[in-house]
Amino acid sequence: MTTAVLFDNVSRHFGAIRAVDRVNLAIAEGEFFAMLGPSGSGKTTCLRLLAGFEQPTGGHIEIFGETAEGVPPYRRSVNTVFQDYALFPHLSILENVAYGLMVKGIGREERRKAAEDALAMVKLPGYGGRRPGQLSGGQRQRVALARALVNKPKVLLLDEPLGALDLKLREQMQEELKSLQKSLGITFVFVTHDQGEALSMADRLAVFNDGRIQQLGTPEEVYNRPRTRFVADFVGSSNVLSAKLCQALGLNAAFASLRPEAVAIAPPMNGALSLSGTVASHSFLGATNRIVVDVGVDGARIAVASPAARGAPAIGSPVTLSFAAHDLHPMEDA
Amino acid sequence: MTIVADSFVVPERRGTAGRVSDFFWRHPHVLLAVLLGPPLIWLGIVYLGSLFALLLQSFFSIDEFSGLINYEFTLATYRQLLTEANLDIILRTVLMAALVTLASAVIAFPIAYYAARYARGKWKAVFYLAVMLPLWSSYLVKVYAWKLVLAKEGILTWFFAKLNLLWLLDAWLSLPIVGGNSLSISYTGTFIVFVYVWMPFMILPIQAALERVPATLIEASSDLGGTPAQTFRHVIFPLALPGIVAGSIFTFSLTLGDYIIPQIIGSSRLFIGQAVYAQQGTAGNIPLAAAFTVVPIVIMGAYLWMAKRMGAFDAL
Question: pLDDT tens, A49-82?
Fold first, then answer.
């Protein structure tokens, strides 16, 4: 499989600030790749390095086997969907979508046709005559997508494209983006701080923190086997168990992660591990109850995601927690 | 200890101030009227009133024998305005104003662009100071200072001599129309001083317009394949156009109306402002002076209408 994007020990330092620090990464052609991390973690800078808005201060970037350093953004076959959409306010929707073709010198009739096709693809046929100001956030988002895709980029970069949309629209766009990516076969690099979005959409994802990649893998790998404390906490807010608690459970590790949904409030059965404690708090989350149990070792608290149908035990009542040994994952100390 | 107040309504503040506050809160339109009324009355009487009085004057005529104003509506004054000598004055002024505006825009744009896009913190303060500083000193002093700079024995001539470029200056001064005995008594000199004096009025609106252009739009253009030149032409320039038009309204109209600069620096041929000054003063022909002042108003009206038609205000 062809490598679409290659980061070889790439750094981008702004003075003393290491926005991106020695990142190694390979993204395959046709992959839907997510960069996940909190704000300031370096994920957006990585995207800007790919778009050409930033140049690395160290390391080497290749896009489809060609060196990217020193190539200006306008000579890269890479297009971006911006977080604020960045539609040109003085141009019509059609002119916005056709902009990339216009600056490349493609004839008026041909680019009008291509722009209309692109608008139809994002389900906005007949909107060409309007202005960006007359469109809703979700519609502008689609126009930004059409404007990028009409250029047939080798890599499409998406910078938190769904961040400004409300929940319902966001879920709908997630599905549409995913199916669009599958049908077009274009490599998507998607930046987000929303772990749910990254897990549900990406083929693979990289979790960023402090300019470094903390973990790289499929959503299942990252979710089930977080490599560091940060990943365990950031992706799905896992329980992080201290060394002492690990020892009490017969595991020799600096830290271990335990998913809330892997824990049941029930007596242990055939070889399962167990902890006992008292209920500290509970909250209703719709499908599940989040029950926090004080297990009495180091003041540790274990969050349990329990099916809402089972109800929640009263605060202060003693409970027994059980979970399979393979759900307890040792982690590095970071 | 309780943190809950005794009653839902906090007791009314005592005194007139409290009552006035409550009244305005209940009647926001009254507050608006109180705030806007006086300036609007001022604007109506002093500003528009004087303008209409002026317009009215231009439809009167002057009795050639007595020199008194004949208060009868007539277009005679406008007929007088459209004689060849007066049309010359108008054409000269409009041409000068257009050239000054064009040159100001060309010089101001890079400065404004730098200030809006690159200058940060201290450098931004330096920029504002440098642009505004000339506005804080007397206009007359600046113009006379320029007379010294441009005079035959002035700094500029000395500078050209030092660079062994006197032949260039002489060649320019020997040109018809723009040339003259020295820069300080040529159209070139008038032009240079106009551009200098009105420059801040061009830089600031352009800078304000450019400041409002989000950086991501420029990145988006580049991302979509636009070279820097294309990005300038298709994104930056159209979005800065309202600022350029605003600046040009200043430079154009200020040049149209000015009567001091061409009097101190330039050939002795008249500009509109000087004609107005002469007609209302020594000549005592108020109607003709009024008719002359109508010219810039009409020109600016036409200019704004054209700018609007060209879409200069679409991005507002």
Answer: 999 999 999 999 999 999 999 899 999 999 999 9
- Which pLDDT score, from 0 to 100, does residue B173 have? 86
A52 lies in the same domain as A109 = yes
Q: Which residues of B touch A151 (CB under 8 A)?
A: 224-225
Residue B212 tokens read as: 């409002």
Judged against a pLDDT cut of 60, whether residue B105 lies above it is answered with: yes
Taking CB atoms and an 8 Å limit, are A90 and B227 in contact across chains?
no
- The pLDDT of B287-311, averaged and rounded, is 85
Q: A112: domain range?
A: 3-228
Give residue-wise pLDDT tens across range A23-55.
999 999 999 999 999 988 999 999 999 999 999
Judged by DSSP in three states, A224 sits in helix
CA distances from A239 to A56, A226, A243, A246, B223 (A): 36, 11, 13, 12, 42
Global pTM reads 0.80
Same domain for A74 and A92, yes or no, is yes
B310 touches chain A (CB under 8 A): no
ipTM of the complex: 0.85
Same-domain check for residues A195 and A61: yes
Minimum CA–CA partner of B225 in chain A: A74
Q: Please indicate if any CB of chain A lies within 8 Å of the CB of B217.
A: yes
Co-location of A246 and A214 in the same domain: no
Backbone angles phi, psi at A55, to 5 degrees: -115, 140
Cβ proximity of A52 and A78 under 8 Å: yes
Per-residue pLDDT tens digits for A105-120: 999 999 999 999 999 9
Question: Are A7 and A135 within one domain?
Answer: yes
Last-in-domain residue among A228, A263, A285: A228
Confidence of residue B216 (pLDDT cuts 50, 70, 90): very high
Which of A74, A88, A90 minimises the CB distance to B225?
A74
State the total domains in chain A.
Answer: 2
Indicate the residue among A188, A204, A228 that finishes a domain: A228
Backbone φ and ψ for A155, nearest 5 degrees, come out as -135, 135
In terms of domains, do A178 and A222 share one? yes
Chain A residue with minimum CA distance to B216: A86
Rounded to a whole number, what is the distance in Å from the CA of A100 to chain B's nearest CA?
Answer: 5
The CA–CA distances, whole Å, from A129 to A138, A156, B116, B240, B295 equal 17, 26, 31, 23, 40
Domain with residue A160: its CATH number is: 3.40.50.300
Are the Cβ atoms of B216 and A82 closer than 8 angstroms?
Answer: yes
Nearest CA in chain A to B218: A86
Number of A:B CB contacts under 8 A? 69
